[in-house]
Amino acid sequence: MHWLIPEMGEQLRNGQISRREFVQTAALLGVSAGAAYAMAGKITGTGMIATAQAQGKKGGTLRCAMQVQEMTDPATFDWTEKSNVARHMGEYLTITGADNVTRPYLAESWEPSDDLKTWTFNLRKGVLFGNGQEMTADDVVYNVQRWLAPETGSSIQGLLNSMVSESDGKDKDGKPIKLKKMTEGAIEKVDDHTVRFHLNSPDLAVPEKMYHYPALIVHRSFDDAGGDISKTPELMTGPYTLSEFSVGEKASLIRRPGFEYWGEAPLLDEIVYIDTGEDAAAGLAALASDQVDAIYLLDLTTLEAAEAIPGIKVSAANTAQTGVIRMQVDAKPFDDIRIRQAIQLASNNQANFEASHRGLGSVGENHHVCDCQPDYSPMAKPQQDLEKAKALLQAAGATDLTVTCNVGNTQGTWEQDSVVALKQDLAKVGINLEVNVMPSAQYWEVWDKADFSLTSWTHRPLATMLLGLAYRTGVPWNESHYSNPDFDKTLTDAESTFDLNERRKIMAKCQTTLQDDAIMVQPFFRAVMSAHSDKVKGYQTHPTLYHQWNKVSIES
C-alpha cells in the first residue's frame, strides 16, 4: 500500500476530502476499485461499496445514432465519436468508469514509487491482437513512443508532459522553434509483460491519463501496415471487428470470428452506429420509431420530447463538458490583453448559462476548471462590468470594433446560442460580434486555426488533465496559442503535488492566472444527456460520453 493512502484515510475521517475523492485517488495509487470503496465505507461507517453490474441476456444487435467519422490513427483522434467506434475494436491500459474511478484493463495492475516519479505497469498475459499475436511490452513501448513523437501530433503529449523534454528544432518554414519530444529513457521494457515509466516530475494521474481516448493500444506493426485502423482492425485487442464502415453513414462491429478474447465476453453480438446527420430531431425520431436503440447525445432542443415518449429513458450526468469561447492571443485584435479583458468583463456568464443551457450544469469562471473536479479551487463567480469593459476598450483605441466568432454546433445548438448571448453582451460595450455558423464537419477541420471561436471540450476526471491538453505551451491542442511559463510551471507543480488540499491551493494560482490572462469566455459547464430504449439494459451515461457496451444487453 502506497504511503499516501493511510494519510488520505485520515483526511477522509476528518472531512478534509470526500469519499469519492478518496476512492478515485486510492485507485490511481494501485488499490483495486472494490477495495478502495470498501476502505471508504469502513472509514466513514457508511457501507460504501462498489456494486457489480447484473448479467444480462446474451446476443442481439444494439443500434446507436451517432456521427460516423473517419478514423485512421487513434493517437490523433480529436472527436469522442471516433473513439466510441474504435473502443470496441481496441482497448486501453486502464479504464475509467462512469464513477470517475480508474481500474485495470490491459494492464492488470500498477505500482507507483513513493515519490510518484516511477510507475510500473504489469501487463496482462494472454492478450491477443486480432492477428493472433500476443500483446507484450514491446507493443506498449511502441505506442508510447508514437504518442510522444512530435511528428505524430498527438494530444497525449500535453497530458504526459512529465515524460517530455524540449529541444531545438525548426518549423516547416525553417524558423527555429522548441520541439517537445519524449525524454530519453522515459519508457522502459522491464520484461515481456512489464513496462516502467520514468517521469521528469511526479504525477499522480498517470493511470487516469492512459484512458485518454486517443491512447488506444495498437500492434507494433501499425505504421508499417499503413496507419489506419479502419483498414486494419486486426491490429487491436478488442472483442469486435469492423464488418462495415462508411463515413457519414454506418459503422458495424461484430464479434471477431474464432477469436480467443482475454476478458469476459461482451453480451452483444453486434454494435451498429448509424449516422442520422446533424439534425438532433432526426436521431430522436429514429429512436422513437425503433430504427435505433440509443442516441449518443440528446440535444437540449429534444430533451422534453424525449422525456415524453413511452419506452424511452433519458440518462444524464453532471460533467466538466463545456464550450470555451477562446481567443488566439497572438492574433489581432486579441494580442491586446485589454481587448480580451473587455470581452470577458462584458460577458454575463450566469445569464448566458440560463439562456443557452437552461441552467443544466454549473456557471463557468473563465478558467476551464469545473467544480465537479476534485482539484478545483473554489472562487468567486465573475461579474459583468460594462463600464470597466468600455474603459479598457477606449484605452486600447478599440471603441468601434468588429470581430467574427466561429461556431460549429458540434454538440448541439446550445453552442450557437451561447455565442449569440455573448454577441448581445458585447453590443452593450460597442463591440460588434458577427457569428459564423459552420457545418460541424467543416468546423472541425479548422477548429484550432480561427482566431476566435467556440470549441466544445469534453469532460476529464481531473482539471490538471484539461489544462495540460489545452493551455500548456506548444502542445498540439493549444488552440488559443497561449504561452505563459509561470502557468506551465504552476500546472506542473499541481500535477506533482500528492496532497489534494495542497493541490487545490496550487490550482487556485492556475485558475487565477488563466482568468487574469483573459484568453477565454467560458460561461458554463454542462450536464450531458443521452437517451435509450428501455430494451437496453445496464447502460449508464459516462461523463465523457464514452461508450462502454461490454456489459450492456438488448432485451425485448
Fill in the keyword field for this structure.
556 residues, alpha+beta, Dipeptide-binding Protein, domain 1, D-Maltodextrin-Binding Protein, domain 2, four-stranded antiparallel sheet, 24 strands
What do you see in this structure?
- With 556 residues, the protein is α+β, with helices and mostly antiparallel strands.
- It folds into 4 domains: 4-44, no CATH class; 90-226, Dipeptide-binding Protein, domain 1 (Alpha-Beta Complex), CATH 3.90.76.10; 240-316 and 535-554, D-Maltodextrin-Binding Protein, domain 2; 322-526, Dipeptide-binding Protein, domain 3, CATH 3.10.105.10.
- Helices cover 29% and strands 21% of the residues.
- The protein is built from 17 helices and 24 strands.
- The strands form 8 sheets. Strands 10-11-12-1-13-22-14 form a 7-stranded mixed sheet. Strands 4-5-9-8 form a 4-stranded antiparallel sheet, covered by helices on one side. The chain has a 3-stranded antiparallel sheet with strand order 19-15-20.
- It is globular.
- The two termini are 46 Å apart.
- 49% of the residues are buried.
- Residues 48-54 have low confidence and may be disordered.
Tally the beta strands. 24
In the predicted model, the low-confidence regions spanning at least 5 consecutive residues are 48-54
Structural category: alpha+beta
The assigned CATH architecture of the largest domain is: Roll
| Main pleated sheet | 7 strands, mixed
Termini gap: 46 Å
* Spatial strand order of the main sheet: 10-11-12-1-13-22-14
- What oligomeric state do these chains adopt? single chain
Shape: globular
Tally the helices.
Answer: 17
Q: How many structural domains?
A: 4
Report the C-alpha radius of gyration, rounded. 23 Å
Roughly what percent helix? 25-40%
CATH topology of the largest domain: Dipeptide-binding Protein, domain 3
CATH class (first level) name of the largest domain: Alpha Beta
